[in-house]
Amino acid sequence: MFKTYHSSTEIVINVRKGKSRQTAHIRFEPYTLGGSMFVTDDPDLQDAIEHHRDFGTLFTVQVQPPSLVIVGHDGNPETDSDSQKTANNANVLDFDSMSEAKDYVADTYGVSRTSMRTKEQIEAAAAQNGLVIRWKTSAPVKLQRSQLLDFEYE
After folding, report:
1. Which pLDDT value is given to residue 143?
2. Which conformational region is residue 89 in: left (phi greater than 0), alpha (psi within -120 to 50 degrees), or beta?
3. Is the pLDDT assigned to residue 12 strictly greater than 90?
4. Residue-level pLDDT at 17
5. Can you tell me the distance from the alpha carbon of 150 to that of 147, in angstroms, rounded to the nearest whole number?
6. Residues in Cβ contact with 140 at an 8 Å cutoff, skipping those fewer than 6 apart
7. What distance lies between CA 130 and its chain's CA centroid?
8. 0.85 cut: is pTM over it?
9. CB 17 within 8 A of CB 23
10. Beta strands 3-7 and 36-40: pairing type?
11. What is the torsion angle, in degrees rounded to the nearest 10, for the CA atoms of residue 135, residue 141, residue 33 and residue 127?
């Protein structure tokens, strides 16, 4: 099972893995607007991270929920290709970042990259081509836009 560890800062930690006494150097991947994350499915590494002295204060865990099984009208589970369809026959794809989604839509459907600058524009371009985009993760927002725009020069 995948576990995602989040921190409000960009961190690097060293942990000792189980009985093997091997050490692992873990670098959390930074978000654009601050904070960082690390994802792993290795149970030994997860146990070592959760026994780190700063676990719970410097960084926390978010467990990925198990995937849902969609049951069809006949009572049988639907296949992966069927489960990726919504009621209006649009394909549903998951993306981690705006750049991945933008590249996919541009390469697959020939939409201009300059016309897709925000998440809403990317979702609209995908919807025009029968695609629904779900975002896997989002960076924590440190400052609101109004705070960024309200500044004074001294």
Report:
1. 52
2. left
3. yes
4. 85
5. 5
6. 6, 8, 31, 33, 34, 35
7. 22
8. no
9. yes
10. antiparallel
11. 30
Using the structure block, give the residue that is written with the tokens 């639907």.
78
Assess contact for 33 and 141: CB atoms under 8 A: yes
| CA distances from residue 16 to 39, 50, 53 in whole angstroms, order as listed | 17, 11, 12
Give the pair of three-digit tokens for residue 14.
């060293």
Alpha helices per DSSP H over 67-142: 80-83, 98-109, 119-128
Contact call for residues 36 and 9 (beta carbons, < 8 A): yes
Whole-number Å distance between alpha carbons of 42 and 120: 35
Contact 7, 58 (CB under 8 A): yes
Token pair, residue 19, equals: 């009985």
CA of residue 72 relative to chain centroid, distance: 28
Q: Which residue has the higher pLDDT, 85 or 2?
A: 2
Q: Is it the case that residue 148 has pLDDT exceeding 80?
A: no
Give the integer Cα–Cα distance in Å for 108 and 100.
12
Whole-angstrom Cα Rg for the chain: 20
What pLDDT is recorded for position 93? Answer: 86
